[in-house]
Amino acid sequence: MRMLDEARSHCDRLLPGLCSALAGVPLAELERPGSPAIELFRKYGGAGLLIPTAHGGAGAGARDAVRTMAALSSYSPSLGAAVAMHGFSVATLRAVPESVNPLVPVLLGAVAGERLLVASAFAEGTSGQGVLAPTMTARATGDGRYRLTGSKKPCSLSRSMDLITASVRLMAPDGGEPETAIVLIPAAAEGVSVHPFWDTLALAGAESDEVRFDEVPCGPEELLRLGDDPADSERLTSTGLIWFQLIISSVYAGLAASLVEDVFRRSRGSASDRAALGAGLRSALLQLDAVALRLEDGEVGTGALADALTVRYAVQDAVGDLSGRSAELLGGMAFIHSSDVAYRLAAGRALAFHPPSRTSTAAPMDAYFAGEPFVMP
């Protein structure tokens, strides 16, 4: 099918061999706990996908990311969901200006060169918090170092991560206002532990368990301070949120594309049925391309964020519609004799559970469409 052929071609160019490796493993094996998919992603250089070539990465842009994530998720939705958080973490780090923290290029080079996977312990999954809201507190120990305490659940890549990135609240020793910073610590650090959390079969291969931080030691070199300019912090927050919506929406678009592809492969339904599915999928991918193009052009203000959320919710609706209509055209025998159709139908619903929910942004979106500035809740 054209859309997935194009997506897989992009993936083959950026991460040669990965699509073929994933295609050789049954869906049920890719989606189970302990899936080989994440290590295949590492093996074929996926850790450096979004890292510029100057730092040893594949140099993918935002539009490349849409296609590559859709391609990977057409084989394994769990892989897409897991590495979406790696991509989000890398994209957030990449957005930190070198003038604010000169260590960022060094960190990105290490991630690409050593094929390190970066988990995200930002606030995803925490009701009432923004994605970049601090989930941990850092207590100063008096020697210029800190001790981190907190928890993230669910935390994708929890079993395969090499590094963990998160926003932290640095508590002021004098009782003043806390400072927000980004922390990047080794997954093997003292006080970091992983605990079972994910109880459903859907997306079980994403390793979305609980990660706890119990007085984890942290030095100043592991903290990315954002500086004193509120504009820098706001820009970083908006950039990270747009990247998150773009990547996670691409994951579920790829999942829906795999069902649409089955309809075309088996010539199910009429030409009109198939053309309608193809048009719906193409439209969703083009909407994601529009968000990606604005990212590449440097449009990361609050208006761009509101538009990215608009596209995310539209893709969310399209995934449900395309998956349901594809399953209907594939028919009852396809549903009965293989769990793949039922699995993808269930997993596709999970886009609605990624933050921010449609309900939580309803009032700000209402105000934005009425002509007011968009304010992220």
**What's the architecture of the largest domain, going by CATH?**
Up-down Bundle
Which range does the strand content fall in? 5-15%
CATH class designation of the largest domain: Mainly Alpha
Mean of residue pLDDT?
Answer: 91
The value of Rg in angstroms is 20 Å
| Series of H and E elements | HHHHHHHEEEEEEEEHHHHHH
- CATH T-level topology of the largest domain: Butyryl-CoA Dehydrogenase, subunit A, domain 3
The percentage helix is 40-55%
Class derived from helix and strand content: alpha+beta
Coarse shape: globular
- Ranges with pLDDT <50 over ≥5 residues? none
Secondary structure tally: strands: 8
Domains, number: 3
Distance between the termini: 39 Å
Our count of helices gives: 13
What would your notes on this structure say?
- Helix content is 50%, strand content 14%.
- It has 377 residues and is of the alpha+beta class.
- Helix 1 (2-14) packs across helix 5 (62-75) and helix 5 (62-75) runs antiparallel to helix 6.
- Strands 1, 2, 3, 4, 5, 6, 7 and 8 form an eight-stranded mixed β-sheet that branches.
- It has helices at 2-14, 18-23, 27-31, 37-43, 62-75, 77-94, 104-113, 230-265, 271-296, 302-330, 332-337, 340-348, 362-369; strands spanning 118-120, 136-140, 146-155, 163-170, 179-186, 192-195, 209-218, 223-225.
- The chain has three domains: 2-113, Butyryl-Coa Dehydrogenase, subunit A, domain 1 (Orthogonal Bundle); 118-225, Butyryl-CoA Dehydrogenase, subunit A, domain 2; 230-369, Butyryl-CoA Dehydrogenase, subunit A, domain 3.
- The protein is globular, with a radius of gyration of 20 Å.
- It has 13 helices and eight strands.
